[in-house]
Design brief:
It is a multi-pass membrane protein. Keywords: Membrane, Transmembrane, Transmembrane helix. Pfam families: Ion_trans_2, TrkA_N. This is NAD-binding protein. The two termini are 44 Å apart. The protein has a seven-stranded mixed sheet with strand order 1-4-3-2-5-6-7, with helices on both faces. The protein has a four-stranded antiparallel sheet with strand order 8-11-9-10. The chain folds into three domains: 84 residues, Helix Hairpins; 124 residues, NAD(P)-binding Rossmann-like Domain (Rossmann fold); 65 residues, Regulator of K+ conductance, C-terminal domain (Alpha-Beta Plaits, 2-Layer Sandwich). It has 358 residues and is of the alpha/beta class. Helix 2 crosses helix 3 and helix 2 packs antiparallel against helix 4. It is elongated and about 105 Å long.
Length: 358
């Protein structure tokens, strides 16, 4: 059955073999703020006027070099028809110096003026070239990043938790088929990839073979299973954290290769049930799950001074000990003492400066 799923959703084309400019509509790399189109137009008009007045002044100061005496209006007229390459021929340079000035100065300015006239097209081409260069640089250097599949409610919450835990936005890649969701992710400074994560080529574009972790948070459980299968096949060493709505699908995610499965509907249901009888417990649980303020659950390595001690007697409120990738709760026999290389799962007090800290 798993093989059937793989064959069905495996793409016949390999997008990663395409040049960088072919991925302009797929990958978006956040960059600085984009100027308003009206401001760009006004700026080009200003540059054009500067060129017109500059050439007019140059011609006016050499009025004796032309076919007739020139007023400044005549000089400005000659500047306009010359720079726009109209060239009526009613005013022409006749002396050697005037012709030399036209060759050395006015002709290059004429080319610059034409470039300004087609500046919008050139701006688009330049922007696409810049985006292509950014994509090339990103594909070459991306390493140990986190991929978030789906930027819905669960995906946004996962990204918020990652950012609050110190992960930089450029180290998070969002994969989704919704352009509006990707635009929201890009506004957060995240790298985005447009496409279905059930396809192997889209995952490769997102750099799944170099990713440290993949968060699978689509809206449908069957999509989560297919994405998990594809990710585990392409990136055997990546950590996969998946979300499902129904608990009956948990074993499918685990069999597909997910390292951890979060059941969203049951978690929400339990919180609702607790809220009816113990609202203060729910408030504390939300505080622990919120990365912005109050308390949060974190993980850290043990210090040399803590080796051999009972985790219950440490300064931090320890909930469990992670040893060789296995979690032991604080009441288990394995967590009686801390060993070298262990990591502690503890309750951390979150201050406002912790959130702002890079």
């Amino acid at each position: 059955m798993a093989n059937r799923f793989r064959e069905r959703f495996r793409s016949t084309g390999e997008l990663t073999t395409l040049p960088d400019h072919a991925l302009l509509g797929v990958i978006r790399i956040p960059h600085g703020a984009v100027l308003s189109p009206w401001w760009l137009i006004l700026r080009r008009v200003f540059y054009a006027l500067v060129l017109l007045f500059g050439v007019a002044a140059l011609v006016y100061f050499d009025t004796d070099g032309y076919s007739e005496p020139l007023t400044f209006v005549d000089a400005f007229y000659y500047s306009a028809v010359s720079l726009s390459t109209t060239g009526y021929g009613d005013i022409t340079p006749v002396t050697q110096s005037a012709r030399l000035i036209n060759i050395i100065i006015i002709t290059p300015l004429r080319i610059a003026f034409v470039i300004l006239l087609v500046g919008t097209t050139l701006s688009v081409l330049t922007e696409e070239s810049r985006r292509s260069i950014r994509i090339k640089h990103w594909r070459k250097h991306v390493r140990n990043h986190t991929i978030v599949v789906g930027y819905g409610t669960k995906g946004r919450s996962a990204v918020a938790a990652l950012l609050a835990d110190g992960v930089t936005p450029d180290n998070i890649v969002v994969v989704d088929t919704d352009r509006a969701a990707l635009a929201a992710a890009e506004n957060q400074g995240l790298v985005t990839v447009h496409g279905s994560a059930t396809k192997a080529d889209v995952l490769r574009i997102a750099g799944v073979t170099r990713a440290k972790a993949v968060v699978v948070a689509p809206n449908l459980d069957d999509t989560a299973v297919l994405v998990t299968l594809s990710v585990r096949e392409i990136a055997p060493s990546a950590t996969i954290v998946a979300s499902v709505r129904e608990s009956e699908n948990q074993h499918l995610l685990e069999q597909s290769g997910a390292d951890s499965v979060v059941i969203s509907s049951e978690t929400a249901g339990r919180m609702l049930g607790l809220a009816t009888v113990n609202p203060s417990v729910v408030e504390m649980m939300e505080d622990l799950l919120s990365p912005d303020e109050g308390f949060s659950i974190a993980e850290r390595p043990v210090t040399e001074e803590e080796v051999g001690a009972n985790p219950r007697h440490l300064a931090d409120i320890v909930l469990g000990v992670v040893r060789s990738g296995e979690l032991y709760r604080i009441d288990s026999p394995e967590a009686e003492s801390v060993e070298p290389g262990d990591r502690l799962l503890y309750v951390r007090r979150v201050f406002s400066e912790d959130v702002r800290r890079p």
